[in-house]
Amino acid sequence: MGKTFLSFEEMRTMLVEIESTLNNRPLTYVYDDNEGVSLPLTPSCLIYGRRIATTPNDSQFEISSTNQSLTNRAKHQNRVLKNFTTQWKKDYLLSLRESSKAQSRGAEIISVGDIVVLKNESTARIFWKLAKVEELITSKDNIVRSAKVGVLDEANKKIQLRRPIQHLVPLEISWKNMT
Question: Which CATH architecture has domain 107-177?
Answer without folding.
Answer: Roll (2.30)
